[in-house]
Amino acid sequence: MSISGEFIAFIGLALAAIAGGVLMLNLTKVVHMVVALVFTFISIAGIYVMLSAEFVAFVQILIYSGAITIIMLFGIMLTRHNDETETAGLTRKILIGLGVLGFAGLMYFGVYNLDLGSGAADLHVDNTEKIGLAIYAKYVIPFELTSVLLLVALVGAIILAKRDDVEEEATKE
C-alpha cells in the first residue's frame, strides 16, 4: 500500500465522518447531535467526490445535509420530549469501545483483502447525465411520490404538534 494524496484525503474524510458519528452518539443536546450528523454527511459527500460521483455528492449535501436535517429539526422542535439524560457506566463504555474497535478491525481486514477485479475505466464519464436520464425517464413517478410523502410527513408533524397544544390549553382551563 502506497501513501498518496488521495489516500491521505480519504483517511481524513473517513476519520471526520467517524468523528461526527461518535459525536452524534455522545452529545446530550439534540440540536448538537443534528449538527454532528451534518458534519458526517458532508464528510461522506467528500468521499463521493473522491470516487468521481459528483452528482451523488451534490445530492448528499442538498438532500441529507439540507432537507433531511431541516425535517429532523422541525420534528425535534415541534414535539415535546423529556430531556432526561441517561449516563452509561464505565463497564458499558468499555464494552462499546471494544465492540467498535473489533468491528473496525474486521472491516479493515475484510476490505484490505478484498479483490474486486478490474473496474470500469469510463464509469465516471457523464454520470450526472446518465443519472438524470434514469430518474426523469424511468423513475419520475417514484421520485415525485417520495417528495409528496416527505411533504405529508412534515404537515402531519405540524398538525400533531398543534393538536397537542390545543389539548394542553383545554386541560389548563
Automatic annotation (TrEMBL):
Keywords: Cell membrane, Membrane, NAD, Quinone, Transmembrane, Transmembrane helix. Its main location: membrane. InterPro entries: NADH_UbQ/plastoQ_OxRdtase_su6, Nuo/plastoQ_OxRdtase_6_NuoJ. The chain crosses the membrane at residues 6-27, 34-51, 57-78, 90-111, 139-161. This is NADH-quinone oxidoreductase subunit J. Belongs to the complex I subunit 6 family. Its EC number is 7.1.1.-. It is found in: Cell membrane. NDH-1 shuttles electrons from NADH, via FMN and iron-sulfur (Fe-S) centers, to quinones in the respiratory chain. Couples the redox reaction to proton translocation (for every two electrons transferred, four hydrogen ions are translocated across the cytoplasmic membrane), and thus conserves the redox energy in a proton gradient. Pfam families: Oxidored_q3. It is a multi-pass membrane protein. It catalyses: a quinone + NADH + 5 H(+)(in) = a quinol + NAD(+) + 4 H(+)(out).
